[in-house]
């Protein structure tokens, strides 16, 4: 170690290490922000430290509908089993109090006119079977009630009422779970990416929405909200600040006729939160655009809602959706394989504010796009011409039949002249 320190000074070693670290830049990815709304429409929100759990029991029906299917089926099964066991115990107590469980009563019943409360109930198992027969209204005929005990008649009425309540609640819960509104929203699709392009001389934020079913969504409306973290002038930090942005719709009622996929457009004007954002600033923005589609299901009349969101990485600047609706043999056909396909178009890279202040930017961008388009057409035509010439030459070389033979002409003087035809 002493020899090495004497040969290589410590100052030189530190300087070399620092220089190597400078040559290798360390790229640190920006931490990805959690989405507020997932692409499938689920809310990315976790509720913690809820102390008043009793509020969920006050609305027991909604709680049962919100539970998972396995929990619902367990509650459905246990409710019936508990009610059968409870009333089986009551029937057993009625029979025991009347003396139906005593073996000596069987001989007495044969000799005299002694009548039990429930026939053929001499154990808890038979009382449990009779409870099931009463509540499910099976009626096998072996066990039946008599008019001997008014208490047994009261238990019968009470069990029928409880059984009807359990059936109504559980059947209603299962029906609501199978006919929930978000099930219909599974066939409402949004484009994976959104685009920003020029439409009617304005920068517009656009995305595509469609419905896979033939049954329509009545009174469908689309809302867009921007969710971002903001700080007020007083220093208050709002982690989820929601701002509504208008949707360009020529219909005053703001409803859309969703019979075919539509491109929803938002004009980026002074009211828009995207007004000061350019193409270079978009990747650095920490924002999320939430799209909400609401409407009434035509077949069931239930209001449904479909949601999705777009973050900065999912917005393409200078792109436009390709058309997917064509007319084929008198029928409008929709090609869903191109639902999210986009094509690059000419669009200024500046913000909408700069475009409003300097309208010449749009004209220059369109002129440059037209020149580049003409140049690409010239290059393409020249390449096609060269390829056709090369193809003809190669065909002449490979096909000897295409080579023109030489013909000799003899003049009267005897001289020969060769010419090629």
Relevant terms:
16 strands, Immunoglobulin-like, alpha+beta, Helix Hairpins, disordered C terminus, five-stranded antiparallel sheet, 421 residues, five-stranded mixed sheet, elongated, 39% helix, disordered N terminus
Shape: elongated
Helix content: 25-40%
Quick check: average pLDDT?
78
CATH C-level category of the domain at 184-357: Mainly Beta
Radius of gyration: 41 Å
CATH topology of the domain at 184-357: Immunoglobulin-like
How many beta strands in the DSSP annotation? 16
Number of helices: 12
Q: SS-based structural class?
A: alpha+beta
- Please give the CATH architecture of the domain at 184-357: Sandwich
Q: Per DSSP, what share of the residues sits in E-state strands of 2 or more residues?
A: 15-25%
Task: Please identify which CATH superfamily of the domain at 184-357 we are dealing with.
Answer: G protein-activated inward rectifier potassium channel 1
| Major β-sheet profile | 5 strands, mixed
C-alpha end-to-end distance: 93 Å
Question: How do the SSEs run, as a string of H and E?
Answer: HHHHHHHHHEEEEEEEHEEEEEEEHHEE
Low-confidence stretches: 1-15, 22-28, 414-421
């Amino acid at each position: 170690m002493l020899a090495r320190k004497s040969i290589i000074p410590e100052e030189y070693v530190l300087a070399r290490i620092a220089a190597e670290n400078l040559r290798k830049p360390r790229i640190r990815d920006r931490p990805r922000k959690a989405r507020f709304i997932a692409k499938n429409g689920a809310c990315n929100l976790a509720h913690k430290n809820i102390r008043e759990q009793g509020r969920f029991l006050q609305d027991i029906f909604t709680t049962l509908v919100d539970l998972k299917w396995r929990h619902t089926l367990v509650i459905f099964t246990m409710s019936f089993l508990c009610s059968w066991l409870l009333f089986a115990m009551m029937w057993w107590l009625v029979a025991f109090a009347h003396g139906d469980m005593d073996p000596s009563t069987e001989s007495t019943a044969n000799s005299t006119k002694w009548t039990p409360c429930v026939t053929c109930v001499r154990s808890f198992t038979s009382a449990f079977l009779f409870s099931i027969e009463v509540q499910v209204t099976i009626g096998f005929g072996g066990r039946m009630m008599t008019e001997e005990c008014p208490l047994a008649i009261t238990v019968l009425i009470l069990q029928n009422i409880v059984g009807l309540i359990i059936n109504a609640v559980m059947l209603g819960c299962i029906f609501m779970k199978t006919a929930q509104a978000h099930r219909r929203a599974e066939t409402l699709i949004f484009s994976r990416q959104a685009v920003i392009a020029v439409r009617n001389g304005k920068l517009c934020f656009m995305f595509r929405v469609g419905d896979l079913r033939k049954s329509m969504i009545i009174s469908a409306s689309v809302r867009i909200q921007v969710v971002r973290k903001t700080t007020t002038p007083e220093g208050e930090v709002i982690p989820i600040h929601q701002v509504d942005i208008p949707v360009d719709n020529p219909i005053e009622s703001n409803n859309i006729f969703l019979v075919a996929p539509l491109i929803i457009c938002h004009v980026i004007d002074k009211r828009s939160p995207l007004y000061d954002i350019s193409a270079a600033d978009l990747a650095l923005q920490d924002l999320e655009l939430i799209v909400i589609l609401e409407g009434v299901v035509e077949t069931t009349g239930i209001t449904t809602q479909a949601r999705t969101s777009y973050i900065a990485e999912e917005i393409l600047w200078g792109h436009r959706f390709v058309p997917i609706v064509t007319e084929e043999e008198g029928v409008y056909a929709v090609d869903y394989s191109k639902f999210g396909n986009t094509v690059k178009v000419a669009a200024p890279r500046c913000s909408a504010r700069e475009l409003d202040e300097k309208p010449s930017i749009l004209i220059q961008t369109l002129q440059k796009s037209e020149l580049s388009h003409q140049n690409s057409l010239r290059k393409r035509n020249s390449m096609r011409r060269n390829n056709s010439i090369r193809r003809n030459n190669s065909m002449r070389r490979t096909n000897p039949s295409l080579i023109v033979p030489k013909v000799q002409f003899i003049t009267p003087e005897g001289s020969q002249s060769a010419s090629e035809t």
